[in-house]
């Protein structure tokens, strides 16, 4: 019989991933889809505080737990969204505190580009550590008036390369509202966890 004393103890790490973006870009929809995709890993019921017209008033929050056997590690991931409404600027800054990574959700509509850029510049002004990973989800690709990805990169002043130095995509096209098109909703979330763990473990 193997003594349990000889087995290494499983370590625990807690991460916080924020979903950020302008109002009605799809942050709460992403939050809902993640709860569907990763339902077996949820360790909290999650909560949302919304206005009477179903817009996020404070934030949405839920916790998942993943086990990484190769690292003998359990990872608890707190996923939170911020309200995109401009009058809640101080709320966004508060909720962003202690974030390990940020997924910026952009609206693909051409008439939302100014809002996207303003929200992205605001995010960068709040991040005091340059090494906080940011990945960008270009949401609502099913709309008729969507911006082309290359033009979106120029507007947002992003690198024109499709991948960063670590090999991760920079922009992830998505249709978060469509349950049959959840590949990149899942992919960007997994990639963000991997980017954070690379910083912390390697």
From TrEMBL:
Q: Which UniProt keywords apply?
A: GTP-binding, Nucleotide-binding
Q: What highest taxon heads this organism's lineage?
A: Archaea
Query: Single GO molecular-function term?
Result: GTPase activity
For the keyword GTP-binding, the answer is yes
The UniProt entry, under InterPro entries, shows: Gliding_Motility_GTPase (IPR052705), P-loop_NTPase (IPR027417), Small_GTPase_ARF/SAR (IPR006689)
Q: Which Pfam families match?
A: Arf
Q: What is this protein called?
A: ADP-ribosylation factor-like protein
Q: Which organism is this entry from?
A: Promethearchaeum syntrophicum
């Amino acid at each position: 019989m193997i003594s349990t004393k000889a087995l290494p103890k499983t370590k625990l790490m807690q991460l916080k991933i924020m979903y950020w973006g302008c109002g009605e870009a799809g942050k709460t929809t992403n939050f809902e889809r993640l709860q569907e995709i990763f339902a077996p890993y949820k360790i909290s019921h999650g909560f949302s505080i919304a206005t009477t017209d179903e817009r996020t008033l404070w934030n949405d929050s839920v916790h998942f737990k993943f086990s990484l056997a190769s690292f003998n590690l359990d990872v608890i991931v707190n996923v939170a969204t911020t309200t995109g409404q401009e009058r809640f600027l101080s709320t966004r800054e508060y909720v962003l505190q202690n974030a390990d990574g940020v997924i910026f959700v952009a609206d693909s509509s051409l008439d939302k580009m100014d809002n996207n850029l303003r929200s992205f510049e605001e995010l960068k002004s709040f991040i005091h550590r340059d090494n906080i990973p940011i990945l960008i989800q270009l949401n609502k690709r099913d709309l008729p008036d969507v911006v082309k990805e290359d033009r979106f990169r120029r507007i947002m002043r992003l690198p024109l390369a499709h991948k960063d130095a670590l090999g991760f995509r920079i922009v992830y096209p998505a249709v978060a509202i469509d349950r049959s098109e959840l590949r990149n909703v899942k992919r960007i979330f997994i990639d963000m966890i991997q980017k954070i763990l690379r910083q912390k473990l390697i």
